[in-house]
């Protein structure tokens, strides 16, 4: 996530550390058809702000699908190791 205009801050979170993905819209956000994606990790939250609704849905769905893929792969690896 890249933030800022004068001082730019970039946050990189490994996908394996993501715990929760949420989309939030306040009343003003809804007026302008904007929303934000909030990614929760063990270390805190990362927020991607000022996204068009479609873009936030796409980002949230993509992250959720990738997290599910990693979880399935991890379970399969554990099962293979037990056999």
Automatic annotation (TrEMBL):
Secretion signal span: none
For this protein, the record's InterPro entries field holds: YdbS-like_PH
Q: Which residues form the YdbS-like PH domain?
A: 1-62
Tell me which Pfam families the record gives: bPH_2
Q: What is this protein called?
A: PH domain-containing protein
Could you tell me which species this protein originates from? Clostridium perfringens
């Amino acid at each position: 996530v890249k933030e800022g205009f004068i001082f730019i801050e970039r946050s990189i979170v490994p996908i394996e550390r993501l715990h929760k993905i949420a989309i939030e819209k306040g009343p003003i956000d809804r007026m302008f058809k904007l929303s934000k994606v909030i990614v929760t990790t063990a270390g805190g939250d990362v927020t991607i702000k000022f996204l068009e609704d479609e873009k936030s849905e796409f980002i949230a769905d993509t992250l959720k699908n990738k997290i599910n893929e990693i979880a399935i792969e991890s379970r399969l690896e554990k099962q293979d190791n037990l056999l």
